[in-house]
Each structure stands twice: as structure tokens, then as C-alpha cells.
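Late entry, evening session. Most of the bench is empty. Finally got around to the prediction I had been postponing all week. Sequence below, unchanged from the version circulated by S.P.
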Amino acid sequence: MKLIDIIRDSDFIEAGSDPEKLQALIDRLSRRRRLNYISAAVYAGLFLVISLISYYSIFLEGEERWRFFAETLRQVGTPVFLGMSLVIYIDAIATGSKLKLLLFLSAQAQSLIREGESI
């Protein structure tokens, strides 16, 4: 992705030739890039966990395979869900998207409701 693709025209117009505004724009873009790297790492970790579970279940037979798969997903489901929520939250901060932030908050509310029902 080129720098031009990331920056909106209005950002350039607003910054103009003011060095402080241009530096603030560059800082914001570098923060966004760091957050994108973090969310990519979290996605990779989640993919690795699910891949390992699937790989191990290949060696099991019949009903035992599905029982293992269901039990393991039940155990790792909450951390995976929290990891995905974290990615949405990081992405919402990086892009400034209010919709993604609302999705994150609604997912957290649903998680709290489920935990409350199970107690």
C-alpha cells in the first residue's frame, strides 16, 4: 500500500505546508501501521490455534474425533473470541471507525451476558 492510498485528500489539504500538521499526519499513519501489524499477528495466532486443533483431530477416528474437536473448541473458544474482539478493537482505534468500535462493544456485551447466564 502506498502512502498516498492511505491518506485522504482532505488530510493533505488540512495539513497544507504547516510542518507540525504534516508531522502529526505522519505520526498518525505510523501508529495506524503499527496497530495493523499487531492485529495481523493476533489473526495469525488465532489461525495457528485453529489449524493445530484441526490437524490433531485428523489422527482420531469417528466419534472420538468430533468429541475432541467439540471439547477443544469449547475450551479455547473464549480466548479465540477475545482475540478476535481485540483485533476488532485495535482496528477500530487504527481507522477511527465508530461502527467497528460498536461491533466490539456489542461483542463484549454478549460475552458478559453469556458468562452471567452460565454462573
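Two things to note before I forget:
Residues 87 and 117 are 25 Å apart (CA to CA).
Residues 15-44+76-118 form one domain.
Will write this up properly tomorrow.
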